[in-house]
Amino acid sequence: MSPISGKTIAFVYTTDVERALGFYQGSLGLTLSSRDDYGALLDAGGAQVRLTVIGDHKAGEHPVAGWNVADIAATAQALKDKGVKFAIYDGWGQDELGIATSPDGSKMAFFSDPDGNALMLNQD
């Protein structure tokens, strides 16, 4: 048995839990599991995303959560259709959806939530 077992939880900080819930539920399609005075817990297909309110939160530039998807182009298009904007980086050779292909052939695309937290899609 591994030394750590159980469900994975990504901790995502927000200044406004209602706004964050609108994005994570409405745009990403995650399901609310529970709410409390400090935030909310969402089901992310076997893993969990914990939204925690921190009034002075400042997002970093690196991803705090990501999803390995079977079809990154279809997923990115569905998110774009819901208003999600993907980041375009100079020199990455991304397509019109913001998808880049790494030297090993895996594909990735980056976007942010309303608090500026970086998120990503990946396809092996």
Keywords:
124 residues, alpha/beta, 2,3-Dihydroxybiphenyl 1,2-Dioxygenase, domain 1, 2 domains, 4-stranded mixed β-sheet, 2 helices, 8 strands, 17% helix
Concise synopsis of the structure shown:
With 124 residues, the protein is an alpha/beta fold. 17% of the residues lie in helices and 35% in strands. It is globular and about 45 Å long.
Task: Describe what you observe in this structure.
With 124 residues, this protein is of the alpha/beta class. It folds into two domains: 8-54, 2,3-Dihydroxybiphenyl 1,2-Dioxygenase, domain 1 (Roll), CATH 3.10.180; 63-124, 2,3-Dihydroxybiphenyl 1,2-Dioxygenase, domain 1. Helix content is 17%, strand content 35%. The strands form two sheets. The chain has a four-stranded mixed sheet with strand order 1-4-3-2, with helices on one face. The chain has a four-stranded mixed sheet with strand order 5-8-7-6, with helices on one face.
* Secondary structure category: alpha/beta
How many helices? The count is 2
Largest sheet: 4 strands, mixed
Name of the level-1 CATH class of the largest domain: Alpha Beta
Shape: globular
**CATH-wise, what's the superfamily of the largest domain?**
2,3-Dihydroxybiphenyl 1,2-Dioxygenase, domain 1
Q: Write the H/E string, N to C.
A: EHEEEEHEEE
Percentage of residues in DSSP E strands: 25-35%
- Strand arrangement in the largest pleated sheet: 1-4-3-2
List the helices and strands and how they pair.
Blueprint (H helix, E strand, L loop, with lengths): L8 E6 L2 H11 L3 E6 L2 E6 L2 E7 L11 E4 L3 H10 L18 E2 L5 E6 L5 E6 L1
Parallel strand pairs: 1-4, 5-8
Antiparallel strand pairs: 2-3, 3-4, 6-7, 7-8
